[in-house]
């Protein structure tokens, strides 16, 4: 499994969590600041991020705002030594997995980590599938993209030929190439592989 990242400027907290996680056979790396993490790591390398809200320099909330621009962001748990209900509610609404007050119950934290690992596995699988699809779409020529957009509206070859002012034979050639590049064998397979993709994204 990918390691867990603990980002906290309190070395005692980092050490305690490292001992806890390693007891559960979870690899873990500690970072003394948000800046250290950003300079040394990529969020996608981890299965879960444990982030202290209040740190010297960049805060945990500022780090999270920065990481939301990453290609892939694993589940995040915030830790804080200061109870702040509005902050917790806002963070969870913003996509944070959980918000725990220090000193947190280790049993509760372990259960939350287990939920994060499960969430990461599901999310990463979907993310990898989308990355693969994006790469295949990128291989299409501009004309193939035009034909694909028409295919996704349900138009027949003759209608596409008329719309794009090309021959039906040319449409058939482009259609065959699209199927090959997107690794599908039928119109149904094409629709299934592009489920959730907006025509404007093609």
Automatic annotation (TrEMBL):
Domain Response regulatory residues, every copy: 3-117
Residue span(s) of domain HTH luxR-type: 133-198
InterPro entries: CheY-like_superfamily, Sig_transdc_resp-reg_receiver, Tscrpt_reg_LuxR_C, WH-like_DNA-bd_sf
CDD domains: LuxR_C_like
Keywords on record: DNA-binding, Phosphoprotein, Transcription, Transcription regulation
GO molecular function: DNA binding
Pfam families per record: GerE, Response_reg
Sequence positions bearing 4-aspartylphosphate: 52
Sections of the chain in a coiled coil: none
PROSITE patterns registered for this protein in UniProt: HTH_LUXR_1, HTH_LUXR_2, RESPONSE_REGULATORY
GO terms, biological process: phosphorelay signal transduction system; regulation of DNA-templated transcription
PANTHER family attached to this UniProt entry: DNA-BINDING TRANSCRIPTIONAL ACTIVATOR DEVR_DOSR
Protein name, per record: LuxR family two component transcriptional regulator
Annotated source species: Iodobacter fluviatilis
Protein's gene: fixJ_1
